[in-house]
Write a structure and sequence with these properties.
Elements: H1 9-23, H2 30-37, H3 41-47, H4 51-72, H5 82-94, H6 96-103, H7 114-119, H8 124-134, H9 140-160, H10 167-182
Helix pairs in contact: 1-2, 1-4, 1-6, 5-6, 5-9, 5-10, 8-9, 9-10
Length: about 180
């Protein structure tokens, strides 16, 4: 008699990530996850004590996915913070459920700050602040805060379907905001 295949924690997290990406983390059930992972519910409960522990692992995978997304979507604007904003808004549009998990979920153990997620390992915010400083901005951190309020608002509108600006309009608006805020 052959042994049953053993499902790994990574396979469970990958399955939960796929469900989260398609429908949102709140749509994960043990049965649905088992079906997506191709196993029974038993290995899920053996590996994870509760859904919060699973959610943390899915969150970590989503954070890595976001960082990969921003690396691939660097943009070509020479105006500081515009490429960063375009990638953030684009992520919200293309991956609304992951955006919600990363940037709109509270009370999650191990959750990183929005700044830490956006800055990432490439220190994107720090790099853009330096570019703004080199362009003559006296307060690049204050400028980032003003820009980020606008960028995050646009991204939230994208998640809810209320943001209907195209890429060129968005880029133009972010450039204008930078120019107005850098004043």
């Amino acid at each position: 008699m052959s042994r049953k295949a053993v499902i790994t924690q990574k396979e469970i997290v990958d399955a939960a990530f796929r469900i989260t990406q398609a429908e949102g983390f709140d749509k994960i059930t043990s049965r649905g996850l088992a079906q997506e992972a191709g196993c029974s519910t038993q290995p899920i409960f053996r590996i994870y004590e509760n859904m919060e522990a699973l959610k943390k692992d899915v969150y970590d995978q989503a954070a890595s996915f976001y960082e990969s997304y921003t690396r691939r979507n660097k943009g070509d604007s020479t105006t500081p913070f515009v490429n960063l904003g375009m990638a953030y808004i684009g992520f919200a549009r293309e991956h609304p459920h992951l955006f919600r998990l990363l940037f709109l979920t509270d009370n999650l153990a191990g959750k990183r700050s929005m700044y830490d997620l956006v800055n990432g390992t490439q220190e994107a915010v720090s790099r853009e602040a330096q570019r703004a400083k080199e362009a003559g901005c006296a307060d690049p951190n204050g400028l980032f805060m003003r820009m980020w309020i606008f960028i995050h608002g646009a991204a939230c509108m994208a998640v809810t379907g209320d943001y209907d600006l195209g890429e060129e309009e968005s880029r133009s608006m972010l450039t204008t905001c930078y120019e107005d805020f850098a004043g």
